[in-house]
Amino acid sequence: MACEVRIAGIEPESVVDGEGIRYVVFVQGCPHRCPGCHNPETHSFDGGRVADIDELFEEIRENPLLKGVTFSGGEPFCQSKPLAELARRVHGIGKDVTTYTGYLYEDLLEMPDPDVADLLAQTDTLIDGPFILAEKDLTLSFRGSRNQRIIKLTEK
Question: pLDDT over 90 for what percent of the chain?
Fold first, then answer.
């Protein structure tokens, strides 16, 4: 059975979306629609294209330079199930997972959806919080606004 995720695009080698060289999956669909978002084309849940996680994993596995994978968006927690499965596979080859979210970590912990909990459990570094235009700060590493936090969930 194929496991699919709706994506806006892929960046096969990024150094701005987490520590080290990262394979970035930009998911399609976001309920937050933050004013000033740098990926507004990802907001619609109908846009982008459908990708098979087997194919994404193969691309990840083939690149020995990657430190890990980043899920960005859009909102990754709107597609928790396929992303958690991809993250499990990524961990299986010794790479780490960073997930960006417009939700707060505390709110994710309270969500009753087991798939959300699964993706959270498969995330090594969480960058949480909505982008707030009034708090925009271009000097921050891996974040767009000062309210966003980098939360290490594991030792990776």
Answer: 95
Q: Give the structural domain span for 46.
A: 4-152
* Amino acid in position 134: A
Return the CATH number at 24: 3.20.20.70
* Number of domains composing the chain: 1
Residue labelled with tokens 């939700």: 103
Beta strands in the chain (DSSP E): 4-14, 22-27, 49-52, 68-72, 96-100, 125-128, 149-152
Structure tokens at 46: 């109908």
Q: How far apart are CA 65 and CA 63, in angstroms?
A: 5
pTM summary value: 0.96
Amino acid at 21: I
